[in-house]
Backbone:
């Protein structure tokens, strides 16, 4: 009797230990990211302090004020316009990629047609072309067309970057919706177009939103192509702008950390909002035949 | 009736925008870069675009020591990081799968590194591995584990390690999340049957859990194969191929030859080699994924 109670207690203890260990592991995994975030709120002296100061003693927003040019000593890096460029380019390319992806994903999920598998594989393989390898010919062609260093040039590239993956995800979400729903609507007098907008689209909406977030993050975070196709404040994005700091003679670590926070926060919020759908989309879209 | 009014044309019409943009931004430039790779094009001399040199760029690559070193290093780098990511991801997924309390929170925390753009990851570890002010050296010194400043990003081998570390940190979650999703989707019956039949934990894992997880691992591999070239961002920020080319990967080499040395013809030839490598890699895992999917479909 006591033996089973004992073993149950040791089992519970083991379980608690395992949970604690896992949580500890995850926290350790987050330390590198947290360190940068924390450093954004420190004065430079504290960043350079030895031994390290883990928790900011005098949290400050000075670093942010400085990179936006609001402080007393200004940093000559136009973070404000980089931010706007990033936002405009990422949002526009996401919207276009979603429209194209919805049409394409629907075609893959709902129709049988010749060359289906080949076209799908072809789209994926196009996506596999390394950014820097693609940037060489695109750079030459875009400069001949005069769209180097414009937002338009980058938006076009990002749409093509996002279309294959958007199609993959959206295809998966449409497959999860039973075909009979749309058929029933059509029996009741809807056209296929109406059935799509009234039945299938609302059901797949959250999945499509997840695909949109994925596309947005890809554009928001992209560097290899942007670093070659942009030149000035009219089109430079945040990831490219981050390198401005290292180009200077002394690296402004505090400023860079603040800029890192500006890049990470929107990504963080968006991913948390759709993480459940993202995981479902990645697995179901890929596994269910 | 014209083709585009027929019912059978609908899927092609729906796919038309996708195919059009891919043709414009990927297929056409790839054909153009194939052409360029047979010319001696230099950015500073625009008319050299029509300067046909045949296979000279390719034969130069074949003899180029730097190129093959970078090539070998890239293959080594990918082999190491992908295997480490898979094993760590599997470990984390198995661990989280056994936890009952706070599982959802853990899964959310686990996604944290995935949100970082590669350029940020590079910057972050450049900051941490900095020999003077980096937290790694700072912590090692404060704990008394090392007295001097370790030159993480200056020594060739350590720099390679640091870059691999950054890459693993960024992408392990992809494996962990997809494998965890696989564990969640796993049916209970075969596990219990194995227990009844007297399998031990290792046997159960080896013969039931692992085969079931493999399609999920292939999804992760296929997804990763699409973005392995993002390591370019990390290397550019952390070492920019240095010290003395010790961390030069194929992608940084292409950028250096094409943009810094403005030898576009040669760079395009190199880019073609790296593109074919990437495509083979993706194709391989896509095939594996399809095969595993068919196998699972048959088994269920």
Residues:
């Amino acid at each position: 009797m006591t033996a089973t109670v004992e073993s149950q207690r040791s089992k519970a203890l083991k379980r608690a230990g395992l949970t604690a260990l896992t949580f500890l592991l995850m926290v350790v995994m987050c330390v590198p990211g947290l360190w940068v975030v924390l450093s954004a709120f420190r004065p430079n002296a504290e960043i350079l302090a030895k031994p390290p100061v883990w928790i900011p003693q005098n949290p400050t927003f000075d670093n942010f004020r400085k990179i936006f040019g609001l402080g007393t000593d200004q940093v000559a890096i136009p973070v404000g316009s980089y931010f706007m460029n990033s936002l405009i380019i990422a949002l526009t390319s996401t919207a276009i990629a979603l429209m194209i992806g919805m049409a394409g994903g629907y075609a893959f999920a709902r129709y049988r047609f010749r060359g289906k598998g080949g076209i799908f594989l072809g789209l994926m393989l196009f996506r596999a072309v390394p950014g820097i390898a693609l940037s060489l010919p695109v750079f030459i062609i875009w400069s001949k067309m005069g769209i180097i260093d414009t937002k338009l040039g980058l938006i076009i590239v990002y749409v093509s970057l996002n279309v294959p993956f958007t199609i993959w995800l959206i295809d998966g979400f449409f497959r999860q919706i039973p075909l009979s729903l749309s058929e029933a609507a059509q029996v009741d007098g809807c056209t296929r177009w109406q059935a799509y907008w009234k039945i299938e689209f609302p059901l797949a909406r959250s999945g499509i939103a997840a695909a949109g977030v994925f596309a947005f993050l890809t554009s928001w975070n992209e560097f290899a192509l942007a670093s070659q196709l942009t030149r000035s404040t009219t089109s430079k994005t945040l990831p490219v702008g981050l390198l401005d700091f290292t180009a200077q003679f002394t690296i402004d670590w505090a400023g860079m950390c603040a800029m890192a926070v500006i890049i990470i926060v929107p990504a963080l919020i968006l991913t948390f909002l759709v993480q459940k759908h993202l995981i479902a989309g990645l697995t179901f879209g890929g596994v269910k035949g | 009736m014209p083709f585009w009014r027929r019912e059978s044309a609908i899927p092609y019409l729906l796919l038309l925008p996708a195919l059009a943009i891919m043709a414009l931004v990927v297929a056409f430039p790839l054909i153009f870069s194939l052409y360029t790779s047979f010319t001696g094009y230099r950015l500073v001399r625009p008319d050299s675009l029509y300067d046909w040199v045949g296979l000279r760029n390719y034969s130069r690559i074949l003899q180029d020591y730097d190129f093959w070193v970078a090539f070998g290093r890239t293959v080594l780098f990918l082999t190491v990081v992908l295997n480490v990511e898979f094993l760590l991801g599997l470990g984390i997924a198995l661990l989280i799968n056994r936890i009952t309390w706070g599982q959802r929170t853990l899964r959310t925390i686990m996604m944290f590194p995935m949100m970082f753009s590669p350029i940020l990851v590079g910057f972050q570890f450049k900051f941490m591995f900095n020999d003077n002010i980096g937290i790694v050296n700072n912590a090692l010194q404060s704990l008394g584990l090392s007295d001097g400043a370790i030159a993480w990003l200056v020594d060739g081998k350590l720099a390679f390690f640091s870059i691999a570390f950054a890459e693993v940190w960024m992408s392990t979650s992809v494996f962990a999340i997809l494998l965890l999703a696989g564990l969640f989707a796993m049916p209970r019956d075969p596990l219990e049957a194995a227990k009844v039949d007297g399998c031990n934990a290792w046997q159960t894992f080896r013969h039931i859990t692992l085969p079931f997880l493999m399609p999920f691992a292939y999804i992760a591999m296929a997804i990763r194969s699409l973005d392995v070239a993002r390591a370019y961002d990390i290397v550019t920020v952390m070492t920019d191929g240095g010290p003395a080319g010790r961390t030069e990967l194929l992608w940084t080499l292409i950028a250096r030859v094409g943009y810094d040395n403005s030898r576009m013809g040669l760079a395009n030839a190199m880019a073609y080699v790296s593109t074919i490598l990437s495509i083979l890699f993706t194709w391989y895992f896509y095939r594996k994924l399809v095969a595993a999917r068919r196998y699972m479909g048959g088994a269920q």
Q: What stands out?
A: Residues 139 and 229 of chain A are 6 Å apart (CA to CA).
